[in-house]
Amino acid sequence: FWQNVKMGPADPILGVNEAFKKDTHDKKVLVGVGAFRDDNGKPLVLTAVRKAEELILKQNLDKEYLPIIGLDSFNKAAIRFAYGSQSAPILENRIAITQSLSGTGSLRIGAAFIERFMPKGTKVYVPKPTWGNHLSVFSDARVETCEYRYFDPKTNGLNIVGLLEDLNNAPNGSVVLLHGCAHNPTGVDPTQDQWAQILQVVKNKNLLPFFDVAYQGFASGDPVRDAYSLRLFTDAGLQVMLAQSFAKNMGLYGERIGSFSIVCATPEEKDCVLSQIKILVRPLYSSPPLNGARIAEKVLNDPELNKLWLVELKAMADRIINMRQLLRSYLENDFKSTHDWSHITNQIGMFCFTGLSPAQVDRLKDEFHIYLTRNGRISVAGVNTKNAKYIAEAFHQVTK
Ligand code: PMP
């Protein structure tokens, strides 16, 4: 049956992991994959999550199927967390939401919804560059993507002029994918002023904003601050789509817990949209997993656990911010690098776009056993007080 099936290419991010595992050097460093690590380089399970699990265990709950759209108490808490409990779309009961399989699954439902209900040929504008999987999610759902300028390699910052120009030139009614905070892979976010300019174009061109919010609270340590862009748009009365993930901010990576939501014009419209979301989800996976929803629901809804979580969330964000400072300081103060490394601390979130070329990335791997993707992106979560100096020295050596 399958003799014509050819070997496919390895996933560029997961491929870095594989190469790292095979390396036996004692100083090897993995700054590839985007998952939080503590200062000892170990995965972290939050105490708030452990406590939620204990509470759930004590309740001796059954394992029945969830409804198609998931756990109601999770969904309600998830939209309050993203849009704000006092936001107009929540108070006016016009958000269609379904629990889904983390951020990726949510994006995929959004893509399927676009494919089914937007005019044929509608394009999704994605930032250049964007998280690689965005392109596959949309193309596998038969939705065409198109890039808008985002990163400026000259400044290692945002190309706001190019961005606005490209959105202005997009056909009216296109979809625009926006990273709500902590842009992956560049770590470059628009300022509040720049978000206001983006909002203006989106409004003028009647674009549909599709927010991907995979790092709320994980970027700055403050979930309200990290929801700024999303809330700016919804407060301005725009109807948005949202793919939300609790993988990073709760450390629930493998639990696959997130949500997909659409802000509608009226509660009646919301009912119709939700009915169609159910029709989309049922043949895809029937209903979502139970465990992650129970955990996230407890962490969001139990006042004590919520308080504890927010402290732990800030600690994760602070560790990343501190490692950015440490890396930059070693480069500038210890190794006297003459390059401008200010972007390391100007960027935010798990990822830093170092500006290193593919050839320099190869040297890092071959000479220093440091593993990252060839676009020069490092996951700052892989940096710690023990390896920061070694990484900085290697960066200095390959950029001299
Ligand atoms: N969007 C972006 C921008 C991401 O960086 C990620 C995680 N790498 C996701 C979505 C989805 O992650 P998950 O499916 O694990 O929630």
Automatic annotation (TrEMBL):
InterPro entries: Aminotransferase_I/II_large, Asp_trans, NHTrfase_class1_PyrdxlP-BS, PyrdxlP-dep_Trfase, PyrdxlP-dep_Trfase_major, PyrdxlP-dep_Trfase_small. Residues 27-395 form the Aminotransferase class I/classII large domain. Its EC number is 2.6.1.1. GO terms for molecular function: L-aspartate:2-oxoglutarate aminotransferase activity; pyridoxal phosphate binding. It comes from the Eukaryota. It is an enzyme of class 2 (transferase). GO terms for cellular component: mitochondrion. It catalyses: L-aspartate + 2-oxoglutarate = oxaloacetate + L-glutamate. Its cofactor is pyridoxal 5'-phosphate. Pfam families: Aminotran_1_2. The keyword Transferase applies. PROSITE patterns: AA_TRANSFER_CLASS_1. Keywords: Aminotransferase, Pyridoxal phosphate, Transferase. GO terms for biological process: L-aspartate catabolic process. Homodimer. Belongs to the class-I pyridoxal-phosphate-dependent aminotransferase family. In eukaryotes there are cytoplasmic, mitochondrial and chloroplastic isozymes. This is Aspartate aminotransferase. It comes from Smittium simulii.
